[in-house]
Design a protein that fits this description.
Blueprint lengths: L5 E5 L4 H5 L4 H8 L20 E4 L11 E4 L2 H11 L5 E4 L12 E2 L1 E2 L13 E2 L5 H11 L4 E5 L22 H12 L2 H11 L2 E4 L10 E2 L7
Parallel strand pairs: 1-2, 1-8, 2-3, 3-4, 4-5, 6-7, 8-9, 9-10
Length: about 220
């Protein structure tokens, strides 16, 4: 669908707040569950006309996101009423979605390749987290340039783990341990991307993912 193009992948990291100059009082309202994440949408207007994949809760930013990908059955069951209202293409990775939910497209995990990028069109390499699997989806869609948003694998200067508060906040030690675990596959993803001629940029200069070139979002627009 996006042959030789580029796409943005919206993850969950709090760096999105800083990268898109979202006012702190607005971010505080979202994180305190006093406002919907949709209030961020106008601040991300620069990518509304781009190819965009949203990871998990990113679907709440607006229908300008082309694909919504989720890799957890529990996430789907908790959010299915809102997901059902979308006009986006919805991609589920767990086998639960194999023909069971007609409005969710199913991509299988490539069990022969545990990390990196699968080249089998009907499968993705899971890589331990949905954000990493979303990179594989983007490659299947034919892009040659991927810009990662909110791929932080750390907390920001205010101790925020995400740009929203739709998940239970983990204590810092447990959170950082999870981020380290989720980061393990990115070096192999980077290696496979080079072989496939795909450029991947990390639009968070402070990200703990160090295998992609780091940029400020302004450099990509």
């Amino acid at each position: 669908m996006w042959e030789n193009g580029e796409c943005f992948i919206v993850g969950g990291g709090a760096s999105i707040i800083k990268q898109f100059n979202i006012p702190e009082d607005l971010a505080d309202a979202v994180i305190q569950n006093k406002s919907s994440p949709a209030v961020y949408s106008s601040y991300l207007s620069a990518i509304h006309d781009k190819h965009v994949i949203g990871v998990n809760q990113a679907f709440r930013l607006g229908n300008w996101i082309d694909f919504v990908i989720f890799g957890d059955k529990g996430f789907f069951l908790k959010n299915q009423e809102d997901l059902a209202k979308l006009t986006n293409i919805r991609i589920g990775i767990p086998a639960y979605f194999n023909g069971r939910v007609d409005w969710v497209k199913y991509l299988a995990k490539d069990l022969k390749k545990t990390s990196g990028l699968s080249t089998t069109p009907s499968k993705v390499t899971w890589n331990g987290n949905t954000g990493a699997a979303a990179i594989n989806l983007a490659v299947h869609l034919g892009v040659k340039r991927i810009i990662l948003l909110g791929f932080d694998m750390n907390v920001d200067e205010k101790g925020r783990q995400w740009w929203h508060q739709l998940y239970k906040q983990r204590d810092l030690k447990r959170g950082l341990k999870a981020f380290t675990r989720h980061s393990d596959a990115f070096p192999e993803i980077a290696s496979d991307a080079i072989k496939l001629g795909v450029e991947i940029l990390n639009a968070n200069p402070d990200s703990n993912i160090n295998c992609f070139r780091k940029v400020n979002i302004k450099e990509c627009l």
